[in-house]
């Protein structure tokens, strides 16, 4: 075990991405954004004494006359069409309950799941009895947000082979605000790993698979090679290093961090040390700035 005294730690300085705009404005709760009533109030703001005031800590974004504040850290709110990763917490009543890094569990109904073999079957009692054969408690699944209910509960769907049960791999959790918005959420990286960037902040790392075959609901017993497992562990620790220093997460940044850790000859287990995490974050930002 290695113990580092606080006095021996390097000073903590804010790491700013080189792509960040110099005009980005950070606000804290209660801070006045505009004293002009002509601006429309968006999420994260409220009106007080004719002024628009921030209700959360974050950065100000403006589209025409609509002003919103995007929180620096937040739970997932949900939007129709988002690809997310969830963990099954409850099975029964013709539906699965999923933990999706939000304040409420989401709902995935049996009628919104494509059965194995793309069978177009009537979802009857027999299908409900076999729900645990498809997804049991603790299983990870990739799904799409179909609807946001008035009660705040997200209704999910998995009607194509693009969605389904996630097999062998590991899950990394972080704030959704750190993920770069991208329509393509599934990427096969050059290091032999497939990454699912869930819009809810859950990132799944697993070995590459046949994209044409898609996801299924069967468990694979195929052994994952040592090199692939080490690569997945390295990617996982790199993700944690980037998230700790608030570096935006994307396929580009994660590969830059992965390559930097190899070039610096850093063992996988050492990537979780505080000073090493900072070095990886700085190297990643420099690499992105040079490209």
TrEMBL record:
Q: Which UniProt keywords apply?
A: Exosome, RNA-binding
Which named protein is this? Exosome complex component RRP4
Exosome complex component N-terminal domain: from which residue to which, for each copy? 26-62
Q: Which Gene3D superfamilies match?
A: 2.40.50.100, Nucleic acid-binding proteins (2.40.50.140)
* Residue ranges of coiled coil: none
Task: List, alphabetically, the GO terms of the cellular component aspect.
Answer: cytoplasmic exosome (RNase complex); nuclear exosome (RNase complex)
Biological process, per Gene Ontology: CUT catabolic process; exonucleolytic trimming to generate mature 3'-end of 5.8S rRNA from tricistronic rRNA transcript (SSU-rRNA, 5.8S rRNA, LSU-rRNA); nuclear polyadenylation-dependent rRNA catabolic process; poly(A)-dependent snoRNA 3'-end processing; TRAMP-dependent tRNA surveillance pathway; U4 snRNA 3'-end processing
Quote the CDD domains the UniProt record gives. Answer: KH-I_Rrp4_eukar (cd22525), S1_Rrp4 (cd05789)
Q: Where is the signal peptide?
A: none
Q: Determine the domain of life of the protein's source.
A: Eukaryota
Report the main location listed first in the record: nucleus
**Membrane-crossing residue ranges in chain numbering:** none
Its gene name is LOC108671603
In alphabetical order, the GO MF annotations are: RNA binding
Q: Domain RRP4 S1, which positions?
A: 76-147
Q: Which InterPro entries match?
A: Exosome_cplx_N_dom, Exosome_RNA_bind1/RRP40/RRP4, KH_dom_type_1_sf, NA-bd_OB-fold, S1_RRP4
Q: Where in the cell is it found?
A: Nucleus
